[in-house]
UniProtKB/TrEMBL annotation:
Protein name as catalogued: Probable allantoicase
One GO BP: purine nucleobase metabolic process
InterPro entries hit by this protein: Allantoicase, Allantoicase_dom, Galactose-bd-like_sf
Domain Allantoicase residue range list: 19-176, 196-329
Organism: Catenulispora acidiphila (strain DSM 44928 / JCM 14897 / NBRC 102108 / NRRL B-24433 / ID139908)
Keyword annotations: Hydrolase, Purine metabolism
Enzyme class label: hydrolase
Gene giving rise to this polypeptide: alc
Pathway stated in the Swiss-Prot or TrEMBL entry: Nitrogen metabolism; (S)-allantoin degradation; (S)-ureidoglycolate from allantoate (aminidohydrolase route): step 1/1
Gene Ontology molecular function: allantoicase activity
Amino acid sequence: MSDTPSFTQLTDLAARDVGGAVVWANDEFFGEKESLIRPEPPTFSPATFGHKGQVVDGWETRRRRPGGPGVEGTEHDSAIVRLGLPGVIRGVTIDTAFFLGNYPPHARVEAASVPGFPTPADLLAAEWTEIVPTSPLSGGSEQHFEAEITGRRFTHVRLAMIPDGGIARFRVYGEAVPDPVFLAGVPVDLAALTNGARIVAASNMFFSAPENLIKPAESRVMGEGWETARRRDDAGDWIEVRLVAQGVPAVIEIDTANYKGNAPDHIVLLGADRPGQEAGSNWFEVIAQTRMLPDYKHRFRLEGARPVTHLRLEVRPDGGVARLRAFGSLTDAGLTAVRTRWAEHA
């Protein structure tokens, strides 16, 4: 366990805003299980009581008593999370924020790969692999644990709190590994987080996370896009996306939704074809300098597009962009790369 491990910079595969869901828990008497994967930080309002006691922003179970409800056949409480982005898990964060006299003294994390549309009963009967052994927890703090199994693609995780108590948030960090069945022979968003794209660099991330730019859902408020600080020079800001794999974009969508007084004045979109590399030079123009409108979904049809593995969106001089989409198709080489990655982590 470490204070700020590098894996926390990866995608939270379990977050609700990428499609994660808490599909089962043996008990959630004081705090609902769904709180575990809310993307926003936990909060607490003292002396705010409901009919079951203090209202909490987290998953909290009742005190275990022999023969009591929710404890039959178990020695601890647990919850199962369906990953919004099935993939390779590098580490987890267990956050006990605001749980001080009621946090669990230990926790354990397991993972499973279950195809199709499993029910809770199917998941309880599945084969589970321990990725974080039983480990001590402290109250009121974020605790980070590296995954001990990192070579396999998982679809679900099971969090056990031992024996009971409250956990505010649960983060599962890693890289999405998309199923090539859904990428072959059909148009896809080459820049989508859900398809395995990643943000590899950004000039500024003052107001919000760069990864928001390629998340699946529509942006509802300014904080759900990518917004930079105000520049006081003649330069501009930029963000680089490593696409799912090599592909040919046909339609680009640049959405400034909710950015009304802080949209970029104009943008330039560059591309590069660098299979197997995170970053580099050799950029070429995909969309020439174009003025942006506030709170508007800009769409561009590309003619004679070249294969690309990376896109670089330059916003000038600064501002916010809600979403970037790059609709197109994978090349043969790109599809081979996706299939190879799938086979490596099956």
